[in-house]
Write a structure and sequence with these properties.
This protein has three helices and five strands, in the order αβββαββα. By secondary structure, it is α+β, with helices and mostly antiparallel strands. It has a single domain, classed as HIT-like (HIT family, subunit A, 2-Layer Sandwich). Bound molecules: adenosine monophosphate and zinc ion (ZN). Zinc ion (ZN) binds next to helix 1.
Length: 137
């Protein structure tokens, strides 16, 4: 499977790279939520979070922490969001697993997600259903 990020990894499409090793690459998002917004991804093509092996995710988290630290230091902030859009309904456009590291600044105008409420008894129902399902995964 070839996707736009596979082409970036192969050097067929340019990117503004900030990190690379034998298994991972990080580059600036071309349409940043805030300037300095970074995408971190495995070079191997996994279509989403679910399809990515745990050992790859573990290494990706370690690298992302290091890169996030450097991003925050560089941009003089202590705040960032880590995001992983998983599948279309969640806004995943590129089918190659990637973490978004989004630097945050006071007054940057971004709003946190809007919130809903549970009706009486619903929080217990949702929690118990998910807890039971975890035993089957
Ligand atoms: P997602 O919606 O989670 O799949 O995120 C895909 C991200 O890739 C978006 O934030 C895009 O702006 C970014 N993107 C798409 N094409 C490129 C590219 N050629 N270089 C850098 N970032 C890109
Ligand atoms: Zn790919």
């Amino acid at each position: 499977m070839e996707c736009i990020f596979c082409k970036i990894i192969k050097g067929e499409i340019p990117c503004q790279k900030v990190y690379e090793d034998s298994a991972f690459i990080a580059f600036l998002d071309i349409a940043p939520i805030n300037h300095g917004h970074i995408l971190v991804l495995p070079k191997k093509h996994f279509i989403n979070f679910f399809e990515t092996p745990e050992n790859v995710l573990a290494d990706l988290i370690k690298i992302s922490k290091k890169i996030a630290k450097a991003m925050c230091e560089t941009l003089n902030t202590d705040s960032f969001n880590l995001g992983v859009n998983t599948n279309k309904t969640a806004g995943q456009l590129v089918p190659h697993l990637h973490f978004h590291l989004i630097p945050r600044f006071s007054g940057d105008g971004l709003k946190h997600w809007s919130r809903k409420e549970y009706k009486k008894g619903e929080i217990e129902e949702y929690g118990e259903r998910i807890m039971r399902e975890i035993e089957n995964v």
